[in-house]
Structure prediction request, 287 residues.
Amino acid sequence: MAVVYNPSAQYEVKSWDVEYRRDPVRTLMARIYQPQGTGPFPVLLDVHGGAWNDQDRTANALVDQQLAASGVLVVAIDLRLASEAPYPASVADTNYGIRWLKSKAREWNGDPATLGVLGSSSGGHVVELIAMRPNDPRYNEFPLEEAPDLDATLNYVIARSPISNTIARYENAKSRQRLNMMHNNETYFSPWDSIHEANPQEILDRGELISLPPMFVLQGSLDDNVMPETQAHFVDCYRNAGGDIEFEVFARAEHRWVTTPGPETDRAIDMMKDYIASRLRAMQPVA
Prediction:
């Protein structure tokens, strides 16, 4: 049965937690948000933010619940934090999570061929790296024994307040004397030079041979953590490199605006739904 997605649909949602990867540091869990209907449903992996040092799979629950209620199988995953393992640990966790979800989606009434990702803040940084480098051996560190042929390629990326320029974000924190934010960067990017190697903006600037899946970037106009002009420059460079990218700025919205109900949060969620619908239409074979 083909996937049919109507962004205005309303489903009841069942949610529960499962283990997705057992690591010596700790067991990483995933939260499943399953629409209760006939399906099959499109599939979305959610990757949390927290400046690489905080938060877990529950961080984006408001958005995940509402996307699932529209008829999307949403799965939000834990990542190792920087205090547990620096870069590229969380990227490897996410890469594994993508392949793992492709292998599991049918069990939860989802179509793995439709899989996209949603990443917020530092989670947006992580998913941009995987989008650009899906086959990087460092990011593919963990084999998926039950499905070794699956890869981490993506149909699309939704990035909310992503850290698309890691060094610009650090310099902004430094200029504002945000010592905790500086510490978060210094803990994650160890050795320090990796802040450049793992910088999506610099990856584009270097002209690396990369993948450029369709992307939608959502940015708050009042964000003084990830500056809107820095984000706009990344979007321009991604487009100039040949990527299909959309960009929306939300007035009166700060860095984590979607964690609080309100008009701009509602608009962001509605635009995510519409973007998912547009990508699914684009995937349909031409008659």
Q: What stands out?
A: The radius of gyration is 18 Å.
